[in-house]
Specification:
The chain is of the alpha/beta class and about 425 residues long. It has two domains: about 150 residues, 3-Layer(aba) Sandwich (Rossmann fold), CATH 3.40.50; about 230 residues, Rossmann fold, CATH 3.40.50.720. Helix content is about 40%, strand content about 15%. The protein contains 15 helices and twelve strands. The strands form two sheets. Strands 8-7-6-9-10-11-12 form a seven-stranded parallel sheet, sandwiched between helices. Strands 1-2-3-4-5 form a five-stranded parallel sheet, with helices on both faces. Helix 7 packs across helix 15, helix 9 packs parallel to helix 10 and helix 10 runs parallel beside helix 12. The longest helix has 24 residues. The radius of gyration is 22 Å and the shape is globular. The two termini are about 30 Å apart. Pfam families: adh_short_C2 (PF13561).
Amino acid sequence: MSDRYTSFARSGPGRAIVKRLGLPDPPKLARFREGDPLIPGPVLVGPSDGPRFEELAKLYASSEEAGKHHALVFDATGITGPAGLRALYDFFHPVARALTPAGRVVVLGLPLAAVADPGQAAAQQALDGFVRSVGKEFGRGTTAQLVRVHPAADTAALRSTLDFLLSAKSAYVSGQTIEVAAVPAPEGGDLRGKVALVTGAARGIGAAMARVLARDGAHVVCLDVPAAGDDLAKVANEVRGEAYQLDLTGEGAAQRLAGHLRERHGRLDVLVHNAGITRDKTLANMDPARWDAVLKVNLIAPAQVTQVLLDAGLIPDGGRIVGVASIAGIAGNRGQTNYAASKAGVIGWVHALAPVLAARGITVNAVAPGFIETAMTAKLPLFIREAGRRMNSMSQGGLPVDVAETVAWFAAPGSAAVTGNVVRVCGQSLLGA
């Protein structure tokens, strides 16, 4: 979908007008392309007395030389009280202007549940406000994240998450807090030999998910309703996967899906619940059919399908389950009580299911997209569409591939320590938490 304002703002005359009037200035975001180096520039790691400094420096070839850096990584897990926060200033202030465009900032902290001392808890919570502010200050497409790592977690458990956050794959993810558990992580690797299912795969975000998972080596089962059969077949052929037409809200649909997967593959390594619908009306004007349809597709069916597949033993130990929430489920949205309730429900479902399946090494996470350029958002009224695009730190909408790359990170074999997280893919939207 064409974003005419962004095209204008990047033109010669447009740049001058945007700067003069203080209008939103959408930066050019660097996105990962197959064959690109995962981390495209030097990484500065600090402080030198941080508990993980030496290991992180070895992993990311820390550069101490003056000049430009692609990324700044700061280990704050050793900060035990508010006075220790001065180390943030001492590290970031001298290099705040030394990041390349589309740079990366990552701060490591401790999970608040692992901190008992009030002073240490205050300092560790302070990291959240610091990181979110950096994401809004540094500009030029820079992203900033807080990774809370369990004290017992080794650096290998962090690798998948840091690789994602420092790469161009996280172009539209910023201002997020991610927790990494104390779970042994397998060697990195891709998804070769894995079977992945993406629901709602016929178009838009679902099609992008299928493409990225296939790029990373997975055999992708692309599922959508029969009415989308032609588009579904095109996507499945493109990714050399398979198309499966099924309405997951139908009677016995979950059992039919389980039978299909058992017969064709014997297991399902990655389950991505992308299928979703909107039926917008204010609550006073909403008929029961609109309410029921949205809840069935967006929340009830994913929960039922997951439970049936688990009960059938089709999701093996080490499997990956990914839900799709929305910033509407975090911030709410006028005319979307049904949609916001369903997406907030996905968040609650992820938080409850993750610890239940942790003993089997099955991770459960969710993405929460903000304004993503799709056929659905193209139909929004002009002013609502423009507000969605501009009300974030990137001053532009995201692309379906931004959501897909986040899902692929969750699905990666090396992401065993990442579970129970809900990560917004929203360019650090001004709405929500």
